[in-house]
C-alpha cells in the first residue's frame, strides 16, 4: 500500500507544481472567496480562532486568505513543530509582526512563545494542507504524519472542535485513496472550484 501512496503522492505533486503562477494566483483568489463564503454560511458573527499554514511545494497559496481573515478580525495560528516531540505540531498565534524562523524543512513558523500557543480544542477551525483527497474525504499528506499524530488523541475522542478543513487544488482530487489506520479523514475540503462536505 505504501508504494501506491507514494505513486499517488508523486503524481499529484507534479500536477500542482506544474500550475502556472497565474493559475496559482487565480486559485488563491477563489480560495479566499470560497472560505469566506463558507464562514458566512455558518451565520456566526463571532471572531474565530483559525489555524492555517504557509503554502509550500505548489500547495494552494494561503497568503490572500490570511490577509482577508486578519482584515475581518479573526485570530490566526500557524503550526510550529513541537520543540520536545518533533513528530507533533503546536499551533501558535500569528500576527503581522510575529518573529519568524525557518523550521527544519525551510518553512517559516513563529518563534516559539509558549504564552501564544492555543490548545487544539480552543481552535474553531484547523485548515490543513494535503497532497491528495478522494470522494470520501480521505486525505493524503506529504508523508511526515505531523497532522495525523497531532490529531490522533482528539480523533479517538470524537471531538467537536476544531473543525478540520482541507485546502487543495481541484487537480489534487482522486477517485479513491489507499487508507491507513492512522489517517484522519476530513468532513470538509475547499478547492478554488468547490466546497466538498461529507
UniProtKB/TrEMBL annotation:
Which reaction(s) does the protein catalyse, per the Swiss-Prot or TrEMBL entry? (6S)-5-formyl-5,6,7,8-tetrahydrofolate + ATP = (6R)-5,10-methenyltetrahydrofolate + ADP + phosphate
Cofactor (UniProt): Mg(2+)
A single GO molecular-function term is:
metal ion binding
Residues bound to ATP: 5-9, 139-147
What domain of life does the UniProt record list for this protein's source? Answer: Bacteria
Q: Which UniProt keywords apply?
A: ATP-binding, Ligase, Magnesium, Metal-binding, Nucleotide-binding
The UniProt entry, under SUPFAM superfamilies, shows: NagB/RpiA/CoA transferase-like (SSF100950)
GO BP, sorted A to Z:
folic acid-containing compound biosynthetic process; tetrahydrofolate interconversion
Q: Name one Pfam family in it.
A: 5-FTHF_cyc-lig
For the ligand (substrate), the binding residues are: 59
What InterPro entries is this protein classified in?
Answer: FTHF_cligase (IPR002698), FTHF_cligase-like_sf (IPR024185), NagB/RpiA_transferase-like (IPR037171)
EC code: 6.3.3.2
Question: Which NCBIfam families does the record match to this protein?
Answer: MTHFS_bact
Q: Matching PANTHER family, A to Z?
A: 5-FORMYLTETRAHYDROFOLATE CYCLO-LIGASE, ATPASE INHIBITOR/5-FORMYLTETRAHYDROFOLATE CYCLO-LIGASE
Family the UniProt entry places it in: Belongs to the 5-formyltetrahydrofolate cyclo-ligase family.
User: Any idea what this protein is called?
Assistant: 5-formyltetrahydrofolate cyclo-ligase
Organism in which the protein naturally occurs: Pseudoalteromonas translucida (strain TAC 125)
Amino acid at each position: 500500500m505504501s508504494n501506491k501512496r507514494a505513486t499517488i503522492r508523486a503524481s499529484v505533486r507534479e500536477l500542482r507544481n506544474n500550475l502556472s503562477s497565474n493559475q496559482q494566483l487565480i486559485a488563491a483568489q477563489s480560495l479566499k472567496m470560497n472560505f469566506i463564503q463558507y464562514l458566512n454560511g455558518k451565520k456566526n458573527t463571532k471572531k474565530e480562532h483559525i489555524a492555517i499554514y504557509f503554502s509550500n511545494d505548489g500547495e494552494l497559496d494561503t497568503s490572500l486568505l490570511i490577509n482577508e481573515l486578519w482584515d475581518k478580525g479573526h485570530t490566526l495560528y500557524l503550526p510550529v513543530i513541537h520543540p520536545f516531540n518533533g513528530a507533533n505540531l503546536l499551533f501558535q498565534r500569528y500576527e503581522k509582526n510575529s518573529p519568524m524562523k525557518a523550521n527544519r524543512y525551510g518553512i517559516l513558523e513563529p518563534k516559539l512563545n509558549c504564552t501564544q500557543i492555543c490548545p487544539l480544542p480552543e481552535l474553531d477551525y484547523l485548515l490543513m494542507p494535503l497532497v491528495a483527497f478522494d470522494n470520501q474525504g480521505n486525505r493524503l499528506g506529504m508523508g511526515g504524519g505531523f497532522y495525523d499524530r497531532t490529531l490522533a488523541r482528539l480523533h479517538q475522542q470524537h471531538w467537536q472542535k476544531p473543525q478540520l478543513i482541507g485546502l487543495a487544488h481541484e487537480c489534487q482530487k482522486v477517485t479513491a485513496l489507499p487508507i491507513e489506520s492512522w489517517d484522519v479523514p476530513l468532513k470538509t475540503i475547499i478547492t478554488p472550484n468547490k466546497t466538498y462536505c461529507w
